[in-house]
Design a protein that fits this description.
This protein has a domain at about 205-300: Thrombin, subunit H, CATH 2.40.10. Helices cover about 5% and strands about 50% of the residues. It has one helix and 28 strands. GO terms for molecular function: 6-phosphogluconolactonase activity.
């Protein structure tokens, strides 16, 4: 009897362990080719293997997707002339059930994010040149936009590319205006512009995406046109420029457009993607001074790496290669931060990866 119980416990233990190895990875795509919307894969957090591809939701051009903080919902932009923002419920089987869809109030929405409390959502409209804020209801559905901030001027066209909440702040990267905006939350929970240029960029740098340290003391902004990362340190209510660092190999002379940027969990390393050189640039970070030093440019084994992500364990980095229609998986060296290619999987037009 005791032997049977021990055997049963052993089977249950190893069954649970096997299940925890695999976690869902959702993929946003462009649907102009063979893609039909948002896909799901299972990712093995011990081996780095991707398998069991399935269509999670049919939607046009979900080029950027994000979770609600409790992971019960996924929000997606519909990147088109008449932009949309959709809310989905994550079903038990991993499929996505549409809750509702609202207007993005600008053409070509390309980024979406929620605040930590899960009651506010920001959408960046690239062609519209504006950023829209939404209130999230308890059931995960979206109200129509509560605020829309237009960055366009008579002299300069805006291309808002990403926005992130941090405590009572909302940071916005505007590639067209070559600027980082800062909005502050007021007592009525609305946001108000505090600064339209928190740090100075080189001419036509093109700030696209950015990463903040956990304490908010440093910000790292990847510049699409200049192929650089701008490093700045918080001083009072603003940020002070430290430097601009190239993302490219010294021997690369072709055209390039940077895309995405991420900090490692321990904040010792920074990663950025190069479209053109088709590489991930790896930087070592001084956690005290905030300065960065490039230590590696690793080929992505694909073409046009738009978005990439680190898995929840921090042991793997995955890259969405848009033009070659594949996702590449790299192992991360815990001590050096350097990447080693493991494998890849085919998937049509992947542009956003979400754990």
């Amino acid at each position: 009897m005791k032997l049977k119980i021990l055997l049963l416990v052993t089977i249950v233990f190893f069954s649970c362990k096997q299940q925890t190895k695999s976690i869902p990875l959702y993929i946003g795509t462009y649907t102009s080719g063979d893609s039909e919307g948002i896909y799901k894969l299972l990712f093995n957090t011990e081996t780095g293997e991707l398998k069991d591809l399935s269509l999670a939701a049919t939607i046009d051009n979900p080029s950027f997707i994000t979770y609600s903080p409790n992971k019960k919902n996924i929000y997606a932009v519909g990147e088109g002339d008449d932009g949309t923002v959709s809310s989905f419920k994550v079903e038990e089987a991993g499929t996505l059930q549409l809750i509702n869809k609202v207007k993005s109030h600008g053409g070509a929405p390309c980024h979406i994010s929620t605040n930590k409390e899960g009651n506010k959502l920001a959408t960046s409209n690239y062609v519209g040149g504006n950023m829209a804020l939404y209130d999230i209801k308890e059931d995960g559905s979206l109200n129509e936009a509560s605020q829309v901030f237009d960055h366009n001027s008579l002299e300069q066209k805006s291309h808002v590319h990403s926005a992130q909440f941090y405590k009572n702040n909302l940071f916005v990267a505007d590639l067209g205006r070559n600027a980082m905006y800062l909005y502050k939350k007021e007592s009525n929970n609305n946001y108000k512009l505090k600064d339209s240029s928190i740090v100075k960029f080189t001419k036509n740098a093109g700030p696209r995406h950015f990463a903040l340290t956990n304490n908010g003391d440093f910000i790292y902004i990847i510049n699409e046109y200049a192929s650089t990362i701008t490093t700045a340190k918080k001083v009072g209510d603003s940020y002070e420029l430290i430097n601009h660092t190239s993302t490219l190999s010294k021997d690369y002379s072709g055209e390039n457009s940077c895309a995405d940027i991420h900090l490692s969990k321990n904040e010792r390393f920074i990663y950025g993607s190069n479209r053109g050189e088709n590489s991930i640039a790896v930087f070592k970070r001084n956690t005290e001074t905030g300065t960065i030093e490039k230590i590696q440019n690793v080929p992505v084994h694909g073409d046009w790496p738009r978005n990439f992500t680190l898995d929840p364990t921090g042991k793997f980095l995955l890259v969405a290669n848009k033009k070659s229609s594949n996702i590449s998986v790299f192992s991360v060296d815990a001590s050096s931060g350097e990447l080693s290619f493991l494998n890849d999987i085919a998937l049509p037009n992947p542009v956003c990866l979400l754990f």
